[in-house]
């Protein structure tokens, strides 16, 4: 069951609440593959024009005009050096979220140094900074830039339990490789994320931070759910396979022995270089 927030401050209080399930949902997008591969960039518009056409506010913020949104979410995208994918992701996901009649913001957190990419740390930073940008009552969605949800009945709002948003992905032959997988796209309430002290900051390079996150939830008794694979299916934008970090197994094992309060939101250190409110997203530059 999705958690409803009764309206928000930006829309007028006289507006009726939007229905629990938006009438604009269209189900599986069978033309999703047009976004993938060589031709992907051909369907793209200029960001400014795209934002104007869809009435998106600066920083990638939107809410329905005809009713008060019942769901409010921030989508946090950890990012570095994948601009082609980011453009496709944004122009695919905005209309998708709008059909769901959400109040949302898209935040891209870019790692500006040359150290190994640290997805967990970037997501922690996105969480902290996004709390300063808007209502504290929101649902957080951690989302990789290379994943496109195929079915808009997969509502980008929080359930009572944390939720792993994909149940089937094309590159995994529309299956899940293992049950405790929590990577790629995940929704969670603010208080649950704080309860587990967020992600570990220690996973430099590819792999493991999501498995550690999964274990953090488990040890707090916060089992997560998934939607039906018919609804929660995704396609992945193709890219070169990242080289997995060689020490991820050791790190994962040692983190299991450690108290999560020693590594996470509470110990997060970073430098916010600047914030830019772009037409399609709020861009955080961090080190
Ligand atoms: C796993 C990775 C995850 C990744 C999934 C799906 C590790 C840690 C050692 C077991 N985990 O193997 O981080 O999300 O694959 O690609 O590498």
Structure notes:
- By secondary structure, this protein is α/β, with parallel strands linked by helices.
- The protein has 6 helices and 11 strands.
- The strands form 2 sheets. Strands 1, 2, 3, 4, 6, 8, 10 and 11 form an 8-stranded mixed β-sheet that branches. A 3-stranded mixed β-sheet has the order 5-9-7.
- α5 runs parallel beside α6.
- It is globular and about 50 Å long.
- The protein binds 2-(butanoylamino)-2-deoxy-beta-D-glucopyranose.
- Residues 52-159 form the Galactosyltransferase N-terminal domain.
- Its EC number is 2.4.1.-.
- Pathway: Protein modification; protein glycosylation.
Radius of gyration: 18 Å
Alpha plus pi helix count = 6
| Shape assignment | globular
| Chemical compounds bound to the protein | 2-(butanoylamino)-2-deoxy-beta-D-glucopyranose
pLDDT averaged over residues: 93
Query: What's the order of the H and E elements?
Result: HEEHEHEEEEEHHEHEE
Helical content stands at 10-25%
Low-confidence blocks of residues: none
Beta strand count: 11
Helix/strand/pairing class, anyone? alpha/beta
The biggest beta sheet is recorded as: 8 strands, mixed
Task: Please give the alpha-carbon distance between the first and last residues.
Answer: 38 Å
**Strand residue content:** 15-25%
Family: Belongs to the glycosyltransferase 7 family.
Function: Catalyzes the transfer of galactose onto proteins or lipids.
Subcellular location: Membrane
EC number: 2.4.1.-
């Amino acid at each position: 069951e999705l958690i409803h927030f009764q309206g928000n401050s930006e829309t007028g209080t006289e507006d009726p609440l939007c229905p629990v399930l938006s009438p604009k949902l269209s189900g599986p997008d069978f033309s999703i593959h047009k976004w993938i591969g060589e031709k992907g960039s051909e369907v793209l518009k200029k960001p400014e024009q795209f934002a104007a056409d869809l009435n998106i506010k600066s920083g990638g913020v939107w809410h329905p005009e005809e009713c008060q949104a019942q769901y409010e979410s921030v989508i946090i995208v950890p990012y570095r050096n994948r601009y082609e994918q980011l453009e496709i992701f944004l122009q695919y996901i905005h209309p998708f979220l709008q059909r769901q009649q959400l109040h949302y913001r898209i935040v891209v957190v870019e790692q500006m140094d040359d150290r190994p990419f640290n997805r967990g740390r970037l997501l922690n930073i996105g969480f902290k900074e996004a709390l300063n940008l808007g209502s504290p009552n929101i649902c957080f969605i951690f989302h990789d830039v290379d994943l496109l949800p195929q079915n808009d009945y997969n509502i980008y709002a929080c359930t009572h339990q944390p939720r792993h948003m994909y149940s089937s992905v094309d590159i995994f032959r529309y299956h899940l490789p293992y049950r405790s997988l929590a990577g790629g796209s995940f929704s969670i309430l603010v208080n649950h994320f704080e309860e587990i002290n967020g992600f570990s900051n220690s996973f430099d390079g590819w792999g493991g931070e999501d498995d550690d996150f999964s274990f953090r939830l488990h040890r707090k008794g916060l089992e997560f759910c998934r939607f039906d694979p018919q609804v929660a299916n995704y396609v992945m934008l193709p890219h070169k396979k990242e080289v997995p970090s060689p020490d991820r197994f050791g790190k994962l094992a040692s983190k299991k022995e450690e108290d999560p309060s020693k590594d996470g939101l509470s110990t997060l250190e970073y430098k916010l270089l600047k914030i830019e409110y772009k037409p399609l997203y709020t861009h955080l530059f961090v080190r």
